[in-house]
Structures are given as structure tokens and as C-alpha cells.
Design goal:
The chain is an alpha/beta fold. It folds into 2 domains: 121 residues, Response regulator (Rossmann fold, 3-Layer(aba) Sandwich), CATH 3.40.50.2300; 92 residues, Arc Repressor Mutant, subunit A. It is built from 8 helices and 12 strands. The strands form 3 sheets. Strands 2-1-3-4-5 form a 5-stranded parallel beta sheet, with helices on both faces. Strands 6-7-8-9 form a 4-stranded antiparallel beta sheet, covered by helices on one side. Strands 10-12-11 form a 3-stranded antiparallel beta sheet. Helix 6 crosses helix 7.
């Protein structure tokens, strides 16, 4: 991957300056915006590889920015939420955030999360030519394409990676911790709820009951029949 481009959207100058100060020494190209509409415009023109997006923004809030972005892009988005606002985190994940960090946050933790996400994105671009074929589901790993009964479905990057991780281990139960490790990486510090929310999206998009089973108290299992 060429020099990664990161967009930071927050209405607090101190937060923008802090994040920029920690990211620039890593060699990233940084663009900032201080309200929702400016952030949306920047996302479209700057075309970042990753966005750090605050929930509480003037104009339109971060959740609405994300909802609009998801209609046209699967760019990796880390949301910044107030520690006490659990509903913001849930709504953000439901709309399509890939990850979130709660304020106040450790700049080093945020940088670690960003670096881990960008490493995964780079690895995805050089992935193998493997194709996973099952009775109903077909996953072209290199092209990052999924179809169900020959009908293509659209998944975000995180949703694709979760489905692929489960499909590669068909019939085996993967715990939430294992899925976090495989998809978000070992530096993930957030809640395991992100797994449940994103897999809920995957199930809805697959449109068939029983392809991903929940093993209560343990994790998830992919159950489509092998060919």
C-alpha cells in the first residue's frame, strides 16, 4: 500500500492536533475536518484509507455522516464516542462503523488500532487466489466477492473478513475472542459486542437461516455444506 491516507473528523481542535501529532511521525498523509458536512466532503474528495470520526459533530453528527458514507463506500471507520454514551456506540456499529474508541482515549492505543487496521487492509489487497465454495455460499477471497445461490451480495470489509474467517473454519466454533484476533487483530481493546453486531449484518445480507449458527455462551459456527 502507498502512503496511507487518514481523515480525522472532530470539532475539538485539541483532539485534531493531538491525533495529528501522533499520526504524522508514522508517515501517514493526514486530512482533518471539524464538522459533519466538511467531513463528508473530505471523505469524497480526499478518498482516505481510514477515517477517525467523532460522533458529536456540529451540522450533521457522526452517525449520519457514517450512514451517508456507507451508501457509497466501505472505507474503514473508527468512531470516537463519549465513554458514557453506550447508545452512540451501538448505533454507530449498527450503521456500519468498523471499530470505536471511547473518549478520553490513549493516543498510543488509537495509533495501534489504526496501524493494525491498515496492516489488515494491506494484507487483504495481497490475499491469495483461494475460492471457498459451499452449497449456497461462494467466497472469492482475492476478489473479495460473495454470492449466495449465485446472487452477489455486498459486504463491508469487516463483514467479509468475519464471514471468510468462519467459512475457512467450517464446522468449527470460533469464539468472539478468536474472531476479534482474526479480524481486528491482537491490539483490539474494545468490547466483544462488535462481533455480534457485524455478524448480525452478515446474517441479514446472506438472507438464509442457519448458515451461521450461534453457539450460546461460546461463539459462532459456519454451517453451509461443503461441495
Amino acid at each position: 500500500m502507498a502512503t496511507a491516507k487518514i481523515l480525522v473528523v472532530d470539532d475539538e481542535p485539541s483532539i485534531l492536533n493531538l491525533i495529528t501529532a501522533y499520526l504524522k511521525p508514522e508517515g501517514y498523509e493526514i486530512y482533518t475536518a471539524n464538522d459533519g458536512l466538511a467531513g463528508l466532503k473530505a471523505a469524497r474528495s480526499f478518498k482516505p484509507d481510514l477515517i477517525v470520526l467523532d460522533v458529536m459533530l456540529p451540522g450533521i453528527d457522526g452517525v449520519e455522516v457514517l450512514a451517508r458514507l456507507r451508501r457509497e463506500s466501505d472505507v474503514y471507520v473508527i468512531m470516537l464516542t463519549a465513554k458514557t454514551e453506550e447508545m452512540d456506540r451501538v448505533v454507530g456499529l449498527t450503521v456500519g462503523a468498523d471499530d470505536y474508541v471511547t473518549k478520553p482515549f490513549s493516543p498510543r492505543e488509537l495509533v495501534a488500532r489504526i496501524k493494525a487496521a491498515l496492516r489488515r487492509l494491506q494484507a487483504n489487497q495481497s490475499s491469495s487466489s483461494e475460492v471457498l465454495s459451499f452449497e449456497h455460499v461462494r467466497i472469492d477471497v482475492a476478489a473479495r466477492l460473495v454470492s449466495v445461490d449465485n446472487h452477489p451480495i455486498e459486504l463491508t470489509a469487516i463483514e467479509f473478513d468475519l464471514l471468510t474467517a468462519l467459512a475457512e473454519n467450517r464446522g468449527r466454533v470460533l469464539t468472539r475472542e478468536q474472531l476479534l484476533e482474526k479480524v481486528w487483530g491482537g491490539s483490539y481493546y474494545g468490547e466483544m459486542r462488535v462481533v455480534d453486531v457485524h455478524l448480525g449484518h452478515v446474517r441479514q445480507k446472506l438472507g438464509m437461516d442457519g448458515l451461521i449458527a450461534t453457539v450460546r455462551g461460546v461463539g459462532y459456527r459456519f454451517e453451509d455444506n461443503a461441495l
